[in-house]
C-alpha cells in the first residue's frame, strides 16, 4: 500500500533498522533475507534523500534525520496495530484482548488483585499478563511491550505519555514482634541504630531512598539486606532486630498474617503516589479505556475499605 507515494510496508523495515542499527539483525528480526533488507534500506535512502545509517568504525550510526524519525515511525506502527485489533463490538463481555501490565507486587496485593477478580466476571475475554516492573522499564514501555504501567509518580514523570493517579499511601515501619517487645514508639535514633531491609525497585530504587535521608538528617540507614519484592518483607525481619520501611496498606495486611509489629515512621515523608501510565497510541482504544476505568474503580474501592 502506498500513501503519498511512500510504500507503507517500508515502515516496518525502517523501524527495525532504526532500532537494530544493523541490516543483518533487522533482517533476522523481520524474518526476511539480508538482501531484501538491504534493498529496502536503499529505497528508504532514495525516498528520504538521506543515508539514514552510516558506518562509523565497526558500527552503524543513525543520521540526525534517522534519529528524528525513530519515535514517529514507532508511534505510527503501534497505532496501526491498535486500529487493526479494535473490533466494532465494545461490550465488555465481548472483549477478547490480551493486555500486558507491569506493576510491583505491592500494587498487585493492594489493588490489582481486586480488579482482576472483577474482570473475571465482567470481561471474561480479557487476559492479563501481569509482570513485575522490569529494570529496563522505559525502553520496554517505549517499544510497546507494556500496555499499562503502574509505578510511583516520581518515576512516571519521566514518561511523556498519558497517566492518571490511582492511589496514595503513607510509610510505616515493620519489625519482628519479639524484637519490638516493650517498644511503644519508634524514635528516629532507634530507627538509625538498627539494621534495615530495603526494598529495591529498579536499578536506582534503594539509592534514591537513601539519598532522601542524607541531606535531612546527615546520616544514612544501615542497609543489611535488599530485596526487589515487598511481599517477602515480613520473612526478612522475623527473628531479627531489623526494620523494613514500607507502605501502610500492604503492611497492615501483613500484620494480620505474620508475627510483626508496625510503627508510624519517625520522620515526615511525602505520601507515595502511584499512577498508571499508558502509551499515547492506546489513549482512545475502547477496550484499553475500559480496562483503565476498571482499575481506577478498584483503586477507589480499595481506598474506601482502608478509610
TrEMBL record:
InterPro entries: LysR-type_TF, LysR_HTH_N, LysR_subst-bd, WH-like_DNA-bd_sf, WH_DNA-bd_sf. Gene3D superfamilies: Periplasmic binding protein-like II, Winged helix-like DNA-binding domain superfamily/Winged helix DNA-binding domain. One of its GO terms (molecular function) is DNA-binding transcription factor activity. Residues 6-63 form the HTH lysR-type domain. Keywords: DNA-binding, Nodulation, Repressor, Transcription, Transcription regulation. It comes from the Bacteria. Belongs to the LysR transcriptional regulatory family. This is HTH lysR-type domain-containing protein. It comes from Pannonibacter phragmitetus. The lineage of its organism: Bacteria, Pseudomonadati, Pseudomonadota, Alphaproteobacteria, Hyphomicrobiales.
Amino acid at each position: 500500500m502506498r500513501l503519498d507515494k511512500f510504500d507503507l510496508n517500508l515502515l516496518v523495515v525502517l523501524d527495525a533498522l532504526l532500532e537494530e542499527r544493523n541490516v543483518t539483525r533487522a533482517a533476522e528480526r523481520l524474518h526476511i533475507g539480508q538482501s531484501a533488507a538491504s534493498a529496502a534500506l536503499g529505497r528508504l535512502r532514495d525516498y528520504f534523500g538521506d543515508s539514514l545509517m552510516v558506518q562509523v568504525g565497526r558500527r552503524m550510526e543513525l543520521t540526525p534525520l534517522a534519529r528524528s524519525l525513530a519515535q514517529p515511525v514507532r508511534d505510527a506502527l503501534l497505532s496501526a496495530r491498535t486500529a487493526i485489533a479494535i473490533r466494532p463490538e465494545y461490550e465488555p463481555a465481548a472483549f477478547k484482548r490480551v493486555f500486558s501490565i507491569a506493576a510491583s507486587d505491592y500494587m498487585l496485593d493492594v489493588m490489582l488483585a481486586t480488579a482482576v477478580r472483577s474482570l473475571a466476571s465482567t470481561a471474561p475475554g480479557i487476559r492479563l499478563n501481569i509482570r513485575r516492573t522490569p529494570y529496563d522499564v522505559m525502553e520496554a514501555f517505549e517499544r510497546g511491550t507494556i500496555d499499562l504501567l503502574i509505578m510511583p509518580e516520581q518515576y512516571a514523570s519521566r514518561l511523556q505519555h498519558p497517566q492518571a493517579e490511582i492511589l496514595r499511601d503513607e510509610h510505616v515501619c515493620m519489625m519482628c514482634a519479639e524484637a519490638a517487645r516493650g517498644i511503644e514508639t519508634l524514635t528516629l535514633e532507634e530507627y538509625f541504630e538498627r539494621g534495615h531491609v530495603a526494598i529495591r525497585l529498579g536499578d536506582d530504587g534503594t539509592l534514591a531512598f537513601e539519598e532522601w535521608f542524607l541531606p535531612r538528617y546527615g546520616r544514612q540507614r544501615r542497609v543489611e539486606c535488599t530485596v526487589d519484592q515487598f511481599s517477602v518483607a515480613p520473612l526478612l525481619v522475623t527473628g531479627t532486630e531489623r526494620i523494613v520501611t514500607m507502605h501502610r496498606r500492604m503492611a497492615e495486611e501483613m500484620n494480620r498474617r505474620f508475627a510483626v509489629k508496625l510503627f508510624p515512621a519517625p520522620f515526615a515523608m511525602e505520601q507515595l503516589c502511584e499512577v498508571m501510565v499508558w502509551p499515547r497510541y492506546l489513549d482512545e482504544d475502547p477496550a484499553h479505556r475500559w480496562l483503565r476505568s476498571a482499575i481506577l474503580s478498584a483503586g477507589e474501592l480499595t481506598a474506601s475499605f482502608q478509610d
